[in-house]
Amino acid sequence: MRLFVFHLRAALFWPSYVEWKACCLSRLLDEGLNRFLARLLLRSELSVAERDAILRLRGRVAEVPRGRELVLPERPVEQAILVIEGLIARFDQMNDGRRQITALHIAGDVSDLHSVPVPVPAWGIEAAANSTIALISHDDIRAAAVKFPALAFAFWRDTVVDASILAKWTANLGRADAATRLAHLLCEIGTRMEVAGVGGRDDFSLGLTQAQLADTLGLTTVHVNRTVMALRNLVGLSFAGGRVQVDNWPALAHIGAYDDGYLMLDKDAAAQEWASIS
Amino acid sequence: MRLFVFHLRAALFWPSYVEWKACCLSRLLDEGLNRFLARLLLRSELSVAERDAILRLRGRVAEVPRGRELVLPERPVEQAILVIEGLIARFDQMNDGRRQITALHIAGDVSDLHSVPVPVPAWGIEAAANSTIALISHDDIRAAAVKFPALAFAFWRDTVVDASILAKWTANLGRADAATRLAHLLCEIGTRMEVAGVGGRDDFSLGLTQAQLADTLGLTTVHVNRTVMALRNLVGLSFAGGRVQVDNWPALAHIGAYDDGYLMLDKDAAAQEWASIS
DNA sequence: CGAATATTTGAAGTGGCTCAAGTCCAGTGG
DNA sequence: CCACTGGACTTGAGCCACTTCAAATATTCG
C-alpha cells in the first residue's frame, strides 16, 4: 500500500513535486533565518533594516546525516553553518583519535559564526544527529556586518555568549563529577531548546547517543550509561532514542548546580549598552 | 642606608616625584596599548587611523596584588581590563567554593573584551599574580569599533581566538591526563609569552602558585606538585617562585601533544578575509 | 531476517583525590 | 640577628570515581 502511494506520487506529481521541493527548501531557509534572527533579538536590539538584512541572507540548504563532518581543523571555510533542525557539534580530537565535543548547536544557532572573523578554525564541526542546515557565505555575513554596525555587535555578542557557555563547560569538566556534569548539560540543552521553541526543558529531542554524550562530558560510554541510570532513579530521567524526559526538573537542576545566568537570556542585562549603539 | 635613601627622596624630590609618577603611569598605559596593538596586528591588518584610535585610548592604570578580584560574576562592568604586566585570570566558582580558572591573560591581552558586547559576565576576573593593569572605558572601545569597522572585526577576532584557546583547554580537561595538561599549558603560555615579547617559551615568569595551577588544570594541589616533579625529571622543568624553565622544550611539547595552530598565530591564515574588509 | 549500532552489565585496575604531616622559605617584629 | 608566622611546597598512605576490558542484550534499519 505504501508502495502504491509512492508510485502514484512519482508518476503523477513528479514535476510539481520538484517545485514543491524547491519551495520547501526555500521555506526551510526562511525558517532557519527566522530562528537565527529570533536568537539575535534575544540579546540585541535591531532595526527593521537590520532585521531585513538577516532575513535576506541566502544559503544552500542541506540534509546531513549523523556523523557527517562539516568542517575539518585547519581547513579554511567560506560558509557559516546555520542549524535549521537537528544538532551540530564542535569537536577537538586527540592524537589517539579520542574526541571531545566542545559545543552543541541547536535550531537557530549559527555554529561557526567564529569563522567569519577567523576563517581557519582549529576545531572540527560535525552533525551530531541527522540535521538540516543552511550554508551561508561569509562574504554576505561580513557585508551585512560592515553595513550595519549593530549587526556586527550582534554577531560579536553571539560568539561571546558561545564563549560563556564554553567557559561553563570548562569549569564543569575541571571541577564537577559525572552526575553533576550530565545533569548540568541536560538542564542547559533543555533551557536552550525551550528558548528556541523546539521542546520543553523537561521534554526535548536531543538526538545524541550515549557515546556522543561521553565525548561531550569527558567520560567513557560505560560511565555515562551508569550515570544516566543513576539519574533515572534520582530525577525520573528517561533517555531513549535521543529523546530526553525528566520528571523532576528542579531536582535535576539541583544535582547539576544549574543556574542559567551564563546563557545571557536576560535581555535587560545589556540594556545600558544598546543605548550607545543605536 | 635604605631608609636614608627613602627619606632623601621623600624630602627633596617629592613634587617632582609626583610628576615622575604621573608620567610613569602614562608611559605604562602607552606601553600596554602598544602591546595590545601589536597583539591585534598579529591577526588583523589595520590602517594608520585605526592604529591611532587604539593608541589614543585612555585609561586608569592600577597595580593589583595577587588574589585581588577585579570583576565579580553577574556584576555589570563598564571598563575593560588591559594587562600591562603580570597575569590576570578568568574563573568560575562552584557552590562549595572550589574554583576553575578558564583563561589566563598576559601582557598585551585585554582580558574581558567580551564585556564590551556583553557587559554582565557570568565569570569573575582576578589578578593571578601581582600585576599592572589599565582600565579602559567600554564606551571608548565601542566608539572606536563603530567608527572603524575593521577595529570591530579586530576585537571580534580577538575574542574568537580567546574562545579557540578555551576550546583547547576544554578538550584537554575532558580527554588528557595530568602530565599532558600541565605540559600543554606550559607550552601554550610559553609560546604566548614569547610572542608577546615578555620571555622565551622555555624560560618565562609565570607568577602562579601550584595551587592556582591546580585550579587551572582541574587538579588538586597535591597532584599538580607530583606532576611538576615528574616533568622535572622528564624534561628538566624547573618551577620555582613562579619562574618556569624547561631544558628540553620539544620533549615538553611532545608530552603535551602541543600544536600551536589553535593560537591563530599564522597571519596568512586570515588573508582571504582582510581583502573584503579593507 | 540479518547486520550494524546502541545500550547494559560485570569485574578488575588505576589515576587522581583526601587526609594528615612535615619542610622550606620570605617577611615581620622584637 | 633571631624567633615567629604564614604561605608555598613536599611527602606518604589509603581510598574512590572513573576507566578498561570483555561480553551480553536491546534496538534500529535496510
Choose one word for the global shape of chain A.
globular
* Spatial order of the strands forming the largest sheet of chain A: 2-6-4-5
Uncertain regions spanning at least 5 consecutive residues of chain A: 1-18
Mean pLDDT across residues of chain A: 89
What report would you give on this structure?
The first copy, chain A, has 278 residues and is of the alpha+beta class. The first copy, chain A, has a domain at 1-160: Sandwich (Jelly Rolls), CATH 2.60.120.10. Chain A has 9 helices and 10 strands. In chain A, strands 2-6-4-5 form a 4-stranded antiparallel sheet. In chain A, strands 1-7-3 form a 3-stranded antiparallel sheet. The first copy, chain A, is globular. Chains A and B meet through β5, α3, α4 and α9 of A and β5, α4, α5 and α10 of B. Chain A binds a DNA duplex (30 and 30 nucleotides) through α7.
